[in-house]
Amino acid sequence: MTAKGRILVLDDERTIVDVVSMNLAAEGYGVDTALDGESAVELFDPSAHVMAVLDIMLPGIDGYEVARHIRSVSDVPIMMLSARDTDVDMAVGLGIGADDYMTKPFSPVELVARVKAHLRRYSASKREAGGPGHSSEDEIISVGPVRIDTASFAVAVRGVPVELTATEFGILKLLAAHPGRVYTKAQIYQHVWDEEFGGDFSTVQVHVRRLRAKIEDDPSEPLLIGTVWGIGYRFNPDTGS
User: Fold this and answer.
1) Which are the contacts of 137, defined by CB distance < 8 A and separation ≥ 6?
2) Over 90: is that where the pLDDT of 175 sits?
3) Which of 9, 30, 148, 188 has its CA 20 to 30 A from that of 61?
4) What is the assigned CATH class of domain 6-128?
């Protein structure tokens, strides 16, 4: 295993696999590649791989199925790749536990930047979760019915545990730590993805939609995470417990 760990790259286009692998290797990551879903499922090793980059449209087992398999055995970040740029495709990928979604054609430089950002957050969450088995007051965010233990990466709504992806956790933590404050989509992206905003609002919107589906009583009429039209989102503190 390399110092930075290994990343699984799946795509049925050899050129894309080669370009992505070359750019990741240049950053010090080990790379394992697959050209079909069956091979990717066989290759993925939860004890060795720190992330997976998966194409969606594949013959046989598609990227969604590979992502479901990976998520069933590991919580490593998953990035989906697709030639189709629709909210439905993005929502499906994020809904099965993926952390990010990029459309083709994409910039290899941007892909590597996103990979690095996801792995920084993932490593930080693991370090926090591996700490002492108690939490200080500074590690707890409690507002309205939501309780966030930042040390153990745990979230509960009205006492009921909620499983979030690393990205969803990052968005909730940012908003809940500053209840009432409005964050633009660009600010959320810069805080959570830890990179400059590229102007694509859909990534933030879909993650917020998935987060609402997990923590709101009625996601169609969200009370906890409110939309400030034309600006962004805020966490509403006065929602009861």
Assistant:
1) none
2) yes
3) 30
4) alpha beta
